[in-house]
Specification:
This protein has about 230 residues and is mainly β. It has strands at about 10-20, 30-35, 50-55, 60-65, 70-75, 100-105, 110-115, 120-125, 140-145, 170, 175-180, 180-185, 205-210, 215-220. The chain has one domain. Helices cover about 0% and strands about 35% of the residues. Strand 3 (about 50-55) and strand 4 form a beta hairpin. It is globular and about 45 Å long. It starts with 10 loop residues before the first strand and ends in an 8-residue tail after the last strand. InterPro entries: Glutamic_endopeptidase (IPR053168), Neprosin (IPR004314). It holds the Pfam family Neprosin. It comes from Pyrus ussuriensis x Pyrus communis.
Length: about 230
Amino acid sequence: MFRNNGCHNPLLLTFIFFYGPQTQPINNKLTYTKMSQVSPSISGDNLTRLYTYWTVNNGNIGCFNLLCAGFVQVDQTVYPGIRLAPVSIVGGKTYETKFTIYQDPHSQNWWFTLSDKNITVGYWPKEIFTNLRNGADEVGWGETAMSGNTLSPPVGSGRYPDENISHAAYFRSLHYMRAWLKELTPTPTDPVREYIGPSGCYGIQNDKDTGSAYWGCRFTYGGPGCDCGH
């Protein structure tokens, strides 16, 4: 998690997403976002905060955090919008948080946890996601940057990924769950796709399965953004 002074208060979202069946008329998308630097219209400051976001009906319904009915908060101390501190700096100490989203096989609700701290933050009720009643077809990890002008904001630490893992933001130990909460690691046979925008403002380095018990499946990402004039 990096503190990053973006341009003109952009929105930076590090996310995990789930897609329902693509053949259904309503595209249900559940997006969990963390490590966000947002515009004052959402948070009122430029601090790194924990965010949640969900949307259905092709983006016509949904919201951040608790700004509309949807996400049900359970924990009394950790909540959507809480400040994340301390944060990493390039060349300094690295700070991590492990996040998990899973569907309870009994209730079919989608739960959000800080699994390294054994904190259950809350859940999205099954009624929100009609196409995710029986799980998701796709899952993904990454970051997106949204800005209201022609400048693209920095992403991650503001640096492109390189051979030094401490220079850029990263995801590590990636897993997804099958039926009855069985955790699996992405394999070469899984239909994995990489995507990065064409602007050249950002980069990604996919290390795939590192063979390390600590790092597991890993990728690093980021870029200067603002210098691109995108």
